[in-house]
Write a structure and sequence with these properties.
By secondary structure, this protein is an alpha/beta fold. The chain has 3 domains: about 5-65, no CATH class; about 70-360 and about 415-450, TIM Barrel (Alpha-Beta Barrel); about 365-415, no CATH class. The protein is built from 19 helices and 13 strands.
Length: about 475
């Protein structure tokens, strides 16, 4: 056995081993719910030399062995598009800071609720400011799931794989090429759900809805084809598309028709057998992170739920998708969340409220927060607008202090991390109940059948090639 593997498996004391074929075996699964998994998660993020890549490989293989497998939600959404499922809204949860403890809190809530229809996601922009590339994100989620005893398909999503409008204007093919490279990296790491976002390329100055949406739907089809090229054998990656940029004008059914009809034509031109989208993101009145008032409070958001109902119904009945997706909703009042399953919203994206909890909870050490804010005063000064209060400035920029201080977040005292985790678990528990995804584990198991995807141990100091996974159906 390789020396690095031996060292990383030592804390498991025989509960995790390699068999005669060099494959990971887990003779004592209960041992995964202990501190040895904590150590493996740390190595997967902060390990030096070969340790980081080997730890990530071990977590992937342990998950494949015990039944915690990255999977696509496509078949569940297809069933909803056929009218076989209804009455719940899938939460897509962006885990930004204190990722391992935050994810553990989520999996505790999920197990209590017997939920299966939930997604963990990270956006293109978040990967940068949280310092979490896809391979790391997958490893941390796997470790957290194993630590908390979760079993079942794990839906990991690339949120807002978004075309930057300014970069696109300067060099269209370079920007699309960058998105394709990210798709390759993400799918290779285990992201089997990708939200393509070329809604930033919609041109509302054009005279017709078709011409307004044309660049959006043509590029979305191109990126869908790129995803299909990268997906492993036996996996149909769930692809999302978007017609309304979050924070801009509200979407209409007519815009949805213009996009979807054009997308279908563009996709067919690229290959008659290409599978398209399973959901569509729309704009109904929200903005990412909410609108911050001078005193630091968040302005009340008015969501047009009737428009959301109409768009979701049209998406299912006309295009056989799961329905519409709502972004930028985590700052809504608690009373609003029950409305999403009522109007049959397929999916809702939630992020900022969890970040806010980490920064504002009373357990977060004051000296640590002061250090972060001092750093922001210098390193994010160029983002401060004239007349902006400290409350507005720090609310807007503090996410930038997650990546540079990642190790310090992870190194907070256990009592602090436990208190933050407990508060997050309470928040997740509420959302799972409000969105009606409790007791969906059995439904997910009925529709989603993950393919076992084994990986070879990485060479010393070198990560496995993106997408280097061997499918083993039925294992």
């Amino acid at each position: 056995m390789d020396e690095t593997v031996t060292k990383l498996l030592a804390p498991f004391a025989g509960a995790v081993t390699l068999d005669a074929r060099g494959r990971v075996a887990v003779p004592t699964p209960a041992a995964l719910a202990g501190p040895a998994t904590d150590a493996l998660a740390w190595s997967a993020v902060f390990g030096e030399g070969a340790a980081r890549e080997v730890a990530r490989w071990l977590l992937w293989e342990i998950g494949q062995t015990v039944g915690v497998q990255p999977a696509s939600i496509h078949d569940l959404y297809a069933a909803r598009g056929r009218g076989e499922l209804q009455g719940f809204t899938v939460p897509a949860i962006n885990i930004r800071g204190l990722a391992y403890d935050s994810a553990r809190a989520l999996f505790r809530a999920v197990r209590k609720a017997r939920a299966g229809a939930f997604i963990c996601e990270i956006a293109r922009s978040e990967m940068a400011y949280t310092d979490q590339r896809p391979a790391e994100y997958v490893a941390v989620l796997l470790a957290a799931a194993l630590r908390e005893g979760f079993r079942g398909p794990l839906f990991i999503q690339g949120d807002h794989f978004q075309a930057n409008a300014k970069k696109y204007a300067a060099g269209p093919e370079a920007e699309i090429g960058a998105l394709k490279a990210l798709i390759r990296e993400a799918v290779g790491a285990g992201f089997y759900n990708i939200d393509v976002d070329t809604s930033t390329l919609v041109d509302l100055s054009q005279p017709t809805l078709d011409t307004q949406q044309r660049v959006n739907y043509e590029r979305a089809a191109e990126l869908t084809e790129a995803i299909r090229r990268e997906q492993p054998a036996g996996v149909t990656v769930s692809v999302g598309v978007e017609i309304g940029e979050v924070g801009k004008k509200n979407s209409t059914v007519e815009e949805q028709h213009a996009f979807m009809d054009g997308y279908a034509r563009a996709l067919a031109a690229r290959g008659p057998a290409l599978v398209g989208t399973s959901k569509i993101s729309v704009q109904t009145g929200t903005s990412h992170g909410g609108v911050v008032l001078p005193d630091g409070s968040i302005a009340t958001v008015k969501i047009d739920f009737e428009t959301l109902r109409l768009l979701s119904r049209d998406a299912r009945e006309r295009y056989h998708m799961a329905g519409a997706v709502q972004h930028g909703a985590s700052t809504l009042p608690n009373s609003a969340f029950g409305k999403f399953p009522e109007v049959e919203t397929a999916e809702i994206h939630l992020a900022t409220a969890f970040q806010t909890l980490l920064f504002e909870h009373q357990a977060a050490p004051a000296a640590f927060k002061a250090k972060l804010y001092d750093w922001l005063r210098t390193n994010a000064a160029d983002e401060r607008k004239s007349g902006e209060t400290d409350e507005q400035f720090f609310y807007k920029t503090r996410k930038k202090a997650l990546g540079p201080f990642k190790r310090e977040w992870w190194s907070l005292p256990e009592a602090v991390r436990s208190a933050l985790g407990a508060a997050l678990e309470e928040q997740f528990t509420f959302l799972l109940a409000a969105l009606k995804v409790g007791d969906t584990a059995a439904t997910v198991a009925r529709y989603v059948k993950p393919v076992a995807l084994r990986r070879s141990e990485p060479g010393a100091g070198a990560p496995p090639a993106a997408g280097a996974a061997d499918a083993e159906a039925g294992e």
